[in-house]
Amino acid sequence: MTPELFLRRIEEEFPEIAWNTYRHLTHGWDHAVLILDEALVFRAPKAPTSLGEVENEAGLLRHLERKLEVGIPRYIYQAADGSFGGYRLLPGRELDPGTFRKLSAEERETIAGRLAAFLTSMHETPKSVARRHQVPKEDAAKDYEDLVRDTEALVFPHLARRDTLAIEAFLAELAAELEQGRPTGLLHGDLSGEHILWDAGKRQVNIIDFSDRMLGDPAIDFAGLLAYGRGFAERVFEEYGGPGDERTFRRARLCFKRTALETMVHSLQGYPCTFEEGYAAFEERFAG
Q1: 170 and 48 in one domain?
Q2: How far is CA 76 from CA 24, 41, 55, 85, 197, in A?
Q3: pLDDT tens, 150-176?
Q4: Pick from 88, 116, 138: which residue ends a domain?
Q5: For 13, what's the count of Cα atoms within 13 Å in the CB-facing half-sphere?
Q6: pLDDT tens per residue across span 217-273
């Protein structure tokens, strides 16, 4: 959906809304996103098969907001056909690793506590709630098969032999881990810096973009936190009280390494990321 078409749809659906400026976010993978007057966020799934997506996400977030200590989107606008929705912009700066490094120890500790409480509440959400809002289940076996196929077919031709050997060893390690039993919970699914907002003035953490929510291994939600350093991720895990086992943090580290491969794969499939980004992450995360 082009920005012009999206704006026209908003105007037709919600004629009471007026705006002077808009910002079109182009880095989203799954949704078209417009921000009106830096006050309202409108999101529309790019896939035409996802028409129920907004309603399901909005309903789940309404349930979650009652028990979370962090801010999350609350949809106040939903198109009649379910094709898009809008919510008030949540304040805060994206908590990318560069921003995180500039924070004080006290701020980091506050954020660790808020994230631990958020993940505990999310992961302990009754599965009946997730099913009611049609949250999909993780298919770890299929995801692994897809990763192996796409990595070997798309990524390996671009790499030196030493790199492919390292990846083959990692894939074997990942396969062995998948054979172990794992706990499950309701996941955010993409808890990375671009989806964690830090409002320094109010000392508030806000979490956005629940489009990758799923029922799956809680380790997945800890993986992105490793971008802030292992010590911080372990601190969050220490405060965490949700479903887990003695291997959860090990699986989180494997997931963190895995995303480097996925970035390289996705770049070659036409998604808005670059092979260089994925390879840089691979070199850093697979070192040693």
Answers
A1: no
A2: 20, 10, 11, 8, 20
A3: 999 999 999 999 999 999 999 999 999
A4: 88
A5: 18
A6: 999 999 999 999 999 999 999 999 999 898 999 999 999 999 999 999 999 999 989
**Total structural domains within the chain:** 2
Helix locations, 133-181, DSSP H? 140-150, 161-178
Element (H, E) at 105: helix 105-123
Strand extents, DSSP E, the chain:
22-25, 31-36, 40-45, 75-78, 85-88, 93-94, 185-187, 196-199, 204-207, 214-216
Instruction: Please say if the pLDDT value at position 16 is more than 90.
Output: yes
User: In terms of domains, do 43 and 168 share one?
Assistant: no
What is the C-alpha to C-alpha distance for residues 122 and 126, in angstroms, rounded to an integer? 9
Q: DSSP letter at 42?
A: E
Q: CA-CA distance, 77 to 79, in Å (whole number)? A: 7
Q: What CA–CA distance (Å, rounded) separates 190 from 214?
A: 10
pTM score: 0.94
Radius of gyration of the chain (CA): 19
Sheet with 85-88: strands ordered across: 22-25, 31-36, 40-45, 85-88, 75-78
Count, residues in the chain: 288
Q: What CA–CA distances, in Å, run from 91 to 20, 78, 200, 201, 234?
A: 20, 21, 10, 10, 27
CA of 154: how far to CAs of 39, 258, 260, 261, in Å?
Answer: 41, 15, 14, 10
Range of the domain at 265: 93-285
131 with 66, same domain: the answer is no
For residue 165, the domain's CATH number is 3.90.1200.10
